[in-house]
């Protein structure tokens, strides 16, 4: 193993970790906004009736837009750096997200400057607003949501890493799509239910029927998007293989697979 390859390997892990961390952190912060999938596509509300006639539309958190890129990056890290590589960045990401929420909470408690309140006293339409109150409402998430999302994220990532390597043991270096899709199928099933169960059943006032119904919609979206983005996974592998060199890339992937089952 020459220095050039070692250097490229280190740079690759740093880059993938940065992409993973950034997308996960941004997804958590913007997740407070809920948007309508039907309105975005210009179609009528789905009004799906599930469990006790609880009607559901495809309303999703804004964070869901970039979560699929977290899945893809996680699978790429797993392919070349194994479960240990995924665990390392997953624990680091949870720590940084928790730190970010702590700082955001502290900032929302700071007393606002009067001139800031005055110059932002009205919205573009001329309606009176309290900019400090709006700032706090947007950035400060409930403790239940934070605990639920961090717990679900960590469980989902660790489970995804294990399932991915289990499937790699069966398929070898072939069928990347099967490893990526299979691990997402299992991990996001758990993730989608855990986050809502903790945030809105344990800490909130949702019924189990509501938790199940909303989690099902989120799961359908995440899994469908992961499948649609499969070509991106192959493109990323192709770029990495060229960057490392085909032989070195294969060697690194084999080492990752072996270390995951030692």
Note down, in words, how this protein is organized.
This protein is mainly alpha-helical. It has one domain. It is 75% helix and 5% strand. The chain has ten helices and four strands; from the N terminus they run H-E-H-E-E-E-H-H-H-H-H-H-H-H. The strands form two sheets. A two-stranded antiparallel sheet has the order 1-4. A two-stranded antiparallel sheet has the order 2-3. It starts with a helix and ends with a helix.
Give a brief outline of the structure.
With 262 residues, the chain is mainly alpha-helical. Helix content is 75%, strand content 5%. It has a two-stranded antiparallel ribbon. Strands 2-3 form a two-stranded antiparallel ribbon.
Keywords, please?
75% helix; globular; 262 residues; 10 helices; two-stranded antiparallel sheet; two-stranded antiparallel ribbon; mainly alpha; 5% strand; 4 strands
List the secondary-structure elements in sequence, H or E. HEHEEEHHHHHHHH
The outline comes out as globular
Cα distance spanning the termini: 21 Å
Helical percent range?
A: over 70%
Low-confidence stretches: none
Beta-strand portion reads under 5%
**Major sheet characteristics:** 2 strands, antiparallel
Give the tally of β-strands.
4
Taking Cα atoms only, what radius of gyration do you get, to the nearest Å?
21 Å
Average residue pLDDT = 84
Q: Largest beta sheet: what is the strand line-up? A: 1-4
Overall tally of domains: 1
Number of helices: 10
Which structural class best describes the helix and strand composition?
Answer: mainly alpha
